[in-house]
Structures are given as C-alpha cells and as structure tokens.
C-alpha cells in the first residue's frame, strides 16, 4: 500500500467517526459558516509574486519540520509578509495539523485560507466552511470525476473556491470542469517523495487558461519561481522552506522581497 492509499484508508475511518459525533447540521449552524469569503484566485491573478504559504508541522516525507509553532503568529507573519493566501494542513495523523489550526488562523488574518486536507466526503467541505476556510483542496489522485464534480459544486454553492491538485496528465484530463478555480500541479512524487519542477513545466501547456495555475511542493528558491513563471504559473505553494525556520513569517517576507 502506498502512502496515499494509507492516508485515505485512515481518513475514511476518521470521517466516519466525526460524522457520528458531529452532525452536518451542527456545522451548518456554526458561527463561521455564514460569512463572506476571500478569493485566492483573484489574489493570485492580481499579484506579481503569487506566494501561498503553508502551515505544516511535519509530513510523511519529513517527520519533523516545526513542532513549536503558534499558528496565529505564523498566520500574522505570513499576512504581514504579503502572501496571497495561507494553506493550513488540517490532517492530524500524518501532518500534525487540526481544524483548530484553521480556526486560529481565521481569527488572526483576513487573507484567503486554504484547507489543506484529503477530502473524500462532502462532510469535509462543510467542515472547511465551518472552520474558516475560503478554499478547499481536491486531490485528483484519490477522487473520481463524479466526486470532484460533487465536492467542487458543493464548495462553490458555499462561496468557497476550489484548488484541484494533479500529478500527471491522466489526473488532469479526467478532472477539468467549470466548478474548479485553480489547477495545482504537485511536484512531489507521492511514491518516492522526490520533487521535480519538471512536472509543473510538462503539465502547464495542458491546463486551460481559464484556471489559475499553481505549482506546489519543493519550491525553495527565487530561481524556481523565475523558472516557472514563463510556463504561466501565477501561484506557488511553499511549506517546508518557510516552516523549517524559527520565524516562518520573516522567512516568507525575505523571500517575497527578493522576487520583486
Ligand atoms: O509533504 C509531503 O510529504 C506529502 C506527502 C504525501 C501527501 C502530501 C504531502 N504534502 C502535501 C503538500 O502538498 C505540501 O505540503 C505542499 O505542497 C508544500 O510542499 P513543500 O513546500 O515541499 O513543503
């Protein structure tokens, strides 16, 4: 079983348990559910830097990145640095994140927030809205076209945006549909954990212009951004490079200053 299969098998159990504990109606009645959202797609289109900075404590490819984070402080640092949006990992078992992290980030900033999660059920889309997200991530590798349609249309009906993540041509071609806002190409091979920006370059020409293109994972230099921009990328999702430092906000600020 590869890591993604393992994550998804655990996620199914987790979501089933949560659904039995907290009914969807309770999520829909929560204070954060009925609010205006911020557009990440617009922020990226209007930006010359396009950084989406991630809050990430650990990952399957890196057991420890930063265990001492204060998510509110990191969020404020990222906002001050001028990022276009923040990605908050909410998976606990593999990434050490939580929905509480998302709520704390929401309480701290007014930039678009992406719920970075392995979404396999409509319930998690409702959870995302109820905990402060503006954007959900859908991963083509673990979803059918029908599921992508159902989850993305639900997100749109709740005024959230959708970032669809692909790793290859097959995933991309099965997923294109109007209810997506951004197309993310993940440079990390989830079987080997190797990262290669060539993945973003190769798939770029297959992504229709209606979608904002985002390159994800393994980005740690200004050269990488300079290299990817001619391929039409307007968004760059960066986690470890900022989170491995003592002050991720400061690190993002220094990085962004160098792009301009
Ligand atoms: O990061 C991992 O090891 C990982 C493993 C399996 C599934 C997903 C994984 N990461 C999620 C992400 O997409 C990244 O956190 C995000 O793109 C930022 O990547 P990086 O800048 O390399 O931290």
Automatic annotation (TrEMBL):
Keyword line: Amino-acid biosynthesis, Aromatic amino acid biosynthesis, Decarboxylase, Lyase, Tryptophan biosynthesis
UniProt cross-references to InterPro entries, sorted A to Z: Aldolase_TIM (IPR013785), Indole-3-glycerol_P_synth (IPR045186), Indole-3-glycerol_P_synth_dom (IPR013798), RibuloseP-bd_barrel (IPR011060)
Catalytic activity from the UniProt record: 1-(2-carboxyphenylamino)-1-deoxy-D-ribulose 5-phosphate + H(+) = (1S,2R)-1-C-(indol-3-yl)glycerol 3-phosphate + CO2 + H2O
MF-aspect GO terms: indole-3-glycerol-phosphate synthase activity; phosphoribosylanthranilate isomerase activity
Pathway in which the depicted protein is active: Amino-acid biosynthesis; L-tryptophan biosynthesis; L-tryptophan from chorismate: step 4/5
Gene3D superfamilies to which the protein is assigned, alphabetical: Aldolase class I (3.20.20.70)
Start and end residues of each Indole-3-glycerol phosphate synthase domain: 4-253
GO BP terms in the entry: L-tryptophan biosynthetic process
Enzyme nomenclature, EC number: 4.1.1.48
Taxonomic superkingdom: Bacteria
Pfam families linked to this entry: IGPS
Top enzyme category: lyase
PANTHER family: INDOLE-3-GLYCEROL-PHOSPHATE SYNTHASE (PTHR22854:SF2), TRYPTOPHAN BIOSYNTHESIS PROTEIN (PTHR22854)
Membership in a protein family: Belongs to the TrpC family.
Protein name: Indole-3-glycerol phosphate synthase
Organism of derivation: Aggregatimonas sangjinii
Encoding gene per record: trpC
């Amino acid at each position: 079983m590869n890591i993604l299969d393992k994550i998804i098998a655990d996620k199914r159990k987790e979501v089933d348990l949560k659904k039995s504990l907290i009914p969807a109606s309770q999520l829909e009645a929560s204070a954060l559910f009925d609010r205006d959202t911020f557009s990440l797609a617009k922020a990226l289109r209007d930006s010359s830097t396009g950084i989406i900075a991630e809050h990430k404590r650990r990952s399957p490819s890196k057991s420890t990145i930063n265990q001492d984070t204060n998510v509110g402080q990191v969020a404020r640092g990222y906002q001050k640095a001028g990022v276009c949006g923040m990605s908050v990992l909410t998976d606990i078992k593999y990434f050490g994140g939580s929905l509480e992290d998302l709520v704390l980030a929401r309480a701290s900033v007014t930039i678009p927030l992406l719920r970075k999660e392995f979404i396999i059920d409509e319930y998690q889309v409702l959870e995302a809205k109820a905990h402060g997200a503006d954007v959900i991530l859908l991963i083509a590798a673990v979803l059918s076209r029908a599921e992508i349609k159902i989850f993305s249309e639900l997100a749109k009906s709740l005024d959230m945006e959708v970032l669809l993540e692909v790793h290859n041509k097959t995933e991309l071609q099965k997923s294109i549909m109007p209810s997506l806002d951004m197309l993310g190409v993940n440079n990390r091979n989830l079987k080997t954990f190797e990262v290669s920006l060539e993945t973003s370059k190769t798939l770029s020409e297959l992504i229709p212009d209606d979608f904002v293109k985002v390159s994800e994972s393994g980005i740690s230099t200004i050269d990488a951004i300079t290299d990817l921009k001619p391929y039409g990328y307007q968004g760059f999702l960066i986690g470890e490079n900022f989170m491995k430092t003592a002050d991720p906000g400061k690190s993002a600020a220094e990085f962004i200053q160098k792009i301009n």
